[in-house]
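User: Can you help me understand a structure? I only have the sequence.
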Amino acid sequence: MTTAGTGPGGDVPVTPRARVLVDADETITEWSPEAERLLGHRPEEMVGRPLSSLLLRPGPSEGAALPHAPPVCGGCRVRLRDRSGLPVEAEWWMCPVLAAEGPVTWAVFLARTDGADPCDFDRAVLGALLTESPIGLHVLDTDLRMVRFNTASPGMRGVPTEGVVGKPAREVAPTVATDAAEHLMRTVLSTGEPVIDFIQPGHPPADPHGEHMYSLSAFRLCNPAGEPIGVATLALDITERYRYRARLELLNDASMRIGTTLDLARTAEELAETAVGRVADAISVDVLDSVHQGEAPAPGPVSSEVTFRRTAFRATRAAGLQPAYTIGEKASYGFPTPLTQCLADLRPRLIRKVEGGEWLKHDPHRADRIRAARVHSMMVVPLAARGVVLGVASFYRSVTSAPFDDDDLTIAGELAAHTALGLDNARRYKRERTAALVLQNSLLPGRLPAQNAVEVAFSYLPGHAGGLWYDVIPLSGARTALVVGDVAGHGMRAVATMGRLRAATHSLAALDLAPDEVLAHLGDLVLELAEENRPAAANDPLDVQPSTATCAYAVYDPVSRHLVVARAGHPAPLLALPDGHVVPADAPCGPPLGGDGLSFETWETDLPEGSLIALYTEGLVRGSPPEGTGAARLRRVLGQQHACLREACDAVVYAQMSGRTDENVVLVLARTRVLHEDQVASWTFPGDPAIVATARTLAERQLASWGLSELVFTTEMIVSELVTNAIRYAPGTIQVRLIRDHALICEVTDGNSAAPHVRHPRTTDEGGRGLLLVARLTNRWGTRRTCHGKTIWAEQTLPVPAADTPSAVADS
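Assistant: Let's start by predicting it. Here is the structure, written out as C-alpha cells:
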C-alpha cells in the first residue's frame, strides 16, 4: 500500500514506496511487503521491535533520529540499516492513523533518497540503450518494421532516424536481415522462446563496403495483456573476435595439414590448399631448384638471379588467375620486383595496390596474368627456415575479395614460416635419402658375375633407401649361390648394415659352407653388430641400430641338378617347373638373423632343366596373407610362359606393384641349366700310388676330346699333385672329376676331412711344394667339405679359340 504526501516544503509531491505501522510506544505493529523489499527485513523479524532499531547512529549534523511528536505528514531524512547491516539513505513521513476508538497508531512512510525514482531510472536505461550503448538494439513490430534502434551502435552510427523508422528491416540492412535472420525473428514472435548468439555475417548500413560478423540475440515484446507486440534484437559486432578465432583455426589447421610428408611438392601443395579461399584467392609457391636437389644456399639473402622451380599453384574459380609457369617449370624473377626485393632482405612485402605498379614492367610475363585476373593486391613472403632461403610464396586477391591488410600479412608470414620448416625437413630428407641411395647402389652388385649354372634376371625397385640386397655368387664345382636379404629399417644405418652382411655372405660362400651354416654365421654377425653399436644412452633414438634381418640362401648344382635352400625369416622361394606348376621351396623358416630361435635347416630337391627359381622380398606381396591375392597372383604370373627372364620380371612387377611406389622390392629369377655328360668326366680310383699315372693319362685323353690340348701339361701336374696328396693322407677310394664350364675345373675328393693349406718351404726342403705349385698354375683353388671327407678343386681359364679355327667360325 502507498500513500500520497508532500515533501518537507509542501510543494513537491512524492509517492512513498513503503509503509510501517507503529503504536504510541514506537513499536512496529505492521511491516509491509514494500518495506521488506526496501530494507530486506522480513515481517516476522520486525513486528514487535522498536522503530528506532532500524536507525543508524546519526551524524553530528543530522539531529534527532526519531522525533517523539512528529508533525502530521511531516518528513525528515534518516539513515536506516538494511538486513545486511549496510546503510540506506531514506526520507520518511509519519502520519497518525485516525480511528473511532482504540489506541493511537502511526503510519511511517519510507522512500529512498540515494537513487533516482524507478521510473526515471527505467527511462535513463532505455535512453542509454538507444543512444549510447555500443551494442546494437533494434525494436521491430510484428511485421518486422523498425520501431526503435540504437543510433550509437557501430552498425547504425550516423544513419538518420527518419530514414529508418517504419521501414522493414530487410530494406534497412538487407545483408544482415537475411532470410535466416527473418526466420529467426518470426520464430521468436510465434513461440516466445528467445534466441541467443546466432552468428550472422553482413554489411551494416554504416559500413556497406565492409563485411562484419554479428552475434544476434532476440526476445519477444508483449503488452500487459501478454499479447506479442514486437521483437527486440541485440546485435554484438564480433568481427575482430571472429577474425581472431578464424586466424587461430587457420594456424591450427596449418600445423595439422602442412608438412605431413617429407616431400617438397606435397608440402608446397598443402600450403596452397590451406591458404586459398581462406587467406587469398590464389597462391603460387616457387622453390629454389637447388633445394629440389637436396641442397640449399648459404644462410642469408640470395641473389635475384637464382633459378626457381614452380612447385605449387592454386586459385579459386572466381579469381580466374592463370599461372605464369607450369608446375615443375624453371624460371627466374625479373629485377627489380617485389619478389627480388623480398629475397634481398628476407622481409615480406604487402602490395596494397597492384595496378599501376612500376615493377610490373620488369616482369611482363607475370604482369599479363595479374592484369587479366584483375588482381588488386598481393603479398610476397619468403620461405626461409633456420636462416636459409628455400623459396617464395605469392598471395593474390582479385576483385572478388577485399584488399590485403597488415593482419593478412602477419598470417601469411606465419603460414610461410611453418611451410618453410616442412620444406627444409623435406630437403634434408631428400639429401640424406640421395646419399643413402648412392651408398646402397654402390654396395649392390653393379653387374652379375659370369656363370653357367643358371640364367639370371632381376628387378630392384628402391622405394626408399633401405637394407635390401641380392647376390649371385659362383661357387666351386660350377655351382651357383642365389641370395636375397632384407635388413630391418631404412636409412643410412640399414644400408651400412646391408653392406657388411653382403660382404660377409661373400666370404662365407667362398668357404663353401652349407646354406644353413652361412645363415648361422650371418646371424652371429648381426648380434655382434648390435652389441658393438649399442648406444651409450638407452633412450637415444639417433643411435638405434638395425637389429634383425631376413635372408634366403639357395645353392644350385648344374651337374646333379640339386637345389639346397635355407631361409631366415624370409619368404620361401618359389619354383616354377617346366610343366607350369609352381611350388614353394618349403625350407623350414628359421628365425630372422639376429633373432632368438632354433638353428637353421636346409631343404633339398632335384630340379628338371629349365625350372625357374624365384627369390623375392616381402614387399612384392605385402598386404596379402601367404595364400592371399598377392601371393596367388605371383604364382600365376610365374607359371606362365615368357619369352625371356627379363619379360618375366617385368610381368611380375606389372602385376604386383600397381600403385605402390614406396615399397622396396627385389625379385631374382634364375632359370636352371644342366651340364650334360659331355661336359663332365669322373673316375674313381683305389688309394694306390700306382694310379697316379693312370689318372694323368685319363685326364690327358679327356682334354684332347674337349679340344683343350693347351691345358694338358698344367692339368696333368694338378691331377698328379692332388691325387698324390689324397693317397698319402686319406684312406679309402679317391674320385677325380673334370668339368668343362666357363673354366676347366679339376676336383679330387677323398675321405679325409682335414683341409690342406699352402706351405712356404725353404730352398733346402725336399717337399711341401705341391699345393703351392697348384696355386701358381690355376686362377683359384679351394677346399669344400663333403659328407664323408673333402673335395679339393682348382680352376683354369679356358683358352680363347683362334679367330680362323673351324670351331670359332661355327660358334660365330
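Now, to help you interpret it: The chain has a mean pLDDT of 83. The chain has 19 helices and 34 strands. Let me know which part you'd like to focus on.
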